[in-house]
């Protein structure tokens, strides 16, 4: 208790009635500018006199910050005092003590004189005593020399959301990669009804205290990025007894409460919910004993959310962990970490907590995955700094706000106290509510920073340190660039990279991580690869030959080839490989090797999983391009264009043109004279030694195919088309003969193939039409067994309702089981088929209930359920959540006579 407190005038005189210390400022208009309002107080305590010179300051509160209450408000005698947004903004003052600017003072005056100030003798905290006389307050002192200005925490208030119409400074331009940008995670925090009842008015203060720890964890330099946590909203949805269902409902609910415009101050990038989790059984999501989140969903408007169990101040580490999953971080013991060559390190993303876990810092694996996630463009929504709508975290350390015994109560329930036998900062050991004779227990969480651990000592990051240590934030600075790595390719244009670390100095005590470029690349080994060498992406696929990954239907001798067509642009730098001889393909690696072309029709190359510009000179960021002669950077003067038509044919193969070595941009078309694919004319190619490359010996390919000729890729449309086409943009290195096959006699006068592989279409004509020609004589040939189609079992149906499709692997093999290309495509078994999985469940809804208000804006609800056509009720996630009809709407919005206030009724069950 202190001796006396008085309110003074500007001249220092004591004002009448100044002994009353319960201050409740009158409501003022939000438009009133109180920036010049000054107050003076005198406090006599500890044998000293303190003069406080205070000026109104609410700059730390966003202009339109929001606290939203859903459900019935709890009546509580101790919570009868209530303020609106205008009051909240006029509560806070800052200034100095005894006319010395080096001794700051920060106070809130709305619920009593609450705050802190510093003098040469230490740090003092002033707060009202609960259940005491109005004039009773308590002042405590500590000897912490360095004090950041305290920003008073906002008490639990009901605040209406204000409309926002402001500038949108964010540019839609995509940012450069491999740069460390400041990232701002705009969080919406939700507490369930049980948590609201338990904490009462202190809820907001309690949540912000927890989030201040989360902020500190994400400021640790081991994360390798500048991540700022910003709270933009406090709200809450329906809780299920199943964690997976709750997560699903929560994600859908939060999306409906989010402003889609990323530059709007009410927009949040992700969201977490603090509840008691009853069951943690779920597939496709990371499941933790006290939390649940889906991997890599940051910036996904429908899935960027997580839930965490409320278990005291230590819940902050659970929240940091679950938020890490949203940033695509796996657990520290995940095989992905081992594949990256990173040994086990148990930090924030440890799968379970034990004595060796360090929950304050991040493992190298976590640093790698969050950096990859951000560098590959999945965190674009985090680049906009919140515009005037965030909650400031308490600057007092959590342990200074909640002592060790209170931390035990928050974790294990009322009556739990700090264990007298195991007093340490690294782990919080607590007794049961029945006393220490029942033993002590822990959840392997550290004591909150700022918890007293001895005379002049307190806990910091799990260690007991002297309070006099210099804990001023130290911002990081970049160190020197390291040496360049070895070239990623031996020819064809590879890359070398260099990195630098933020360690000169490394950020400390909450200092900022470095901003700027952290990785540079340069081209190397840009000379073309030798002719005939295997394509670089093909080399990477072939490394998996013989590996079937336990995929049903794949033989032990499976051969993998690159898959280009049908791949999304954003996935071009992932290694997709196709099973040779089939259309089935799979992603075999997350990234191709740096320097791999992004596709067969571009010189751009993949670097760190991203497609980057490169020229025909294989140099990164080069704009060099081939001219029409195929000369890189040429001026089109080294070649000439040859073109012509051919319209004179005799039976058999007719040589049309000899294509010399060095030709490129070859385009040959044969247009059907009948307007139908079956016109009995075919294109053919052979080399200078009369070896056919395409459609030789009257064996015609009906379908599209690619021909690899000495490193040159030739595209053929297939004969079963009205416009048959041969196309090649690459440079040819050998003489080619373009031939034309006229097969009229054969197809008209015979219904017998001269070869089992002939793919011509045959038509019957009258015998007299063939009299002037010699009848075709047939004989048997090629009597060895023909290759045949080998098929696997059908896969499961791709959809659980409304019909899906099933796939199977179809491979052409000869009698010896070797892959073959000469199976009859006309009888190839289907690789996919439709499957009937029954009708899909649909949303079914009832009639609207009565409105909760007759005027002034109420709500009405109705039952909306997911049902099968037979009436069976299912969980909501079995129906299309985007099509779910609303189960609540506003009603009776007209103003009430003589009333201008809003009233909310409790939620009704559905």
CATH class of the largest domain: Alpha Beta
Report the mean per-residue pLDDT as an integer: 72
Q: What gyration radius follows from the Cα positions, in whole Å?
A: 37 Å
Question: Outline, from the CA principal axes?
Answer: elongated
Return the domain count: 7
Proportion of beta-strand residues: 25-35%
Q: Determine the CATH topology of the largest domain.
A: Collagenase (Catalytic Domain)
Number of strands: 46
Which oligomeric state applies? single chain
Fraction of helical residues: 10-25%
Q: Look at the helices and sheets and give the structural class.
A: alpha+beta
With strands numbered from the N-terminus, the spatial order across the biggest sheet is 1-2-3-5-6-7-8-9
Span of the ends, CA to CA: 52 Å
Structure description:
By secondary structure, this protein is an alpha+beta fold. It has 7 domains: 139 residues, no CATH class; 204 residues, Collagenase (Catalytic Domain) (3-Layer(aba) Sandwich), CATH 3.40.390.10; 69 residues, YefM-like fold; 58 residues; 119 residues, Jelly Rolls, CATH 2.60.120; 48 residues, TSP-1 type 1 repeat, CATH 2.20.100; 50 residues, Single Sheet (TSP-1 type 1 repeat). The chain is built from 11 helices and 46 strands. The strands form 14 sheets. An 8-stranded antiparallel β-sheet has the order 1-2-3-5-6-7-8-9, with no helix packed on it. A 7-stranded mixed β-sheet has the order 4-12-11-13-16-15-14, sandwiched between helices. Strands 30-37-32-33 form a 4-stranded antiparallel β-sheet, with no helix packed on it. Strand 44 and strand 45 form a beta hairpin. Helix 3 packs across helix 5. The protein is elongated, with a radius of gyration of 37 Å. Keywords: Calcium, Cleavage on pair of basic residues, Disulfide bond, Extracellular matrix, Glycoprotein, Hydrolase, Metal-binding, Metalloprotease, Protease, Repeat, Secreted, Signal, Zinc. It holds the Pfam family ADAMTS_CR_2. It comes from Pundamilia nyererei. This is ADAM metallopeptidase with thrombospondin type 1 motif 20. GO terms for molecular function: metal ion binding; metalloendopeptidase activity.
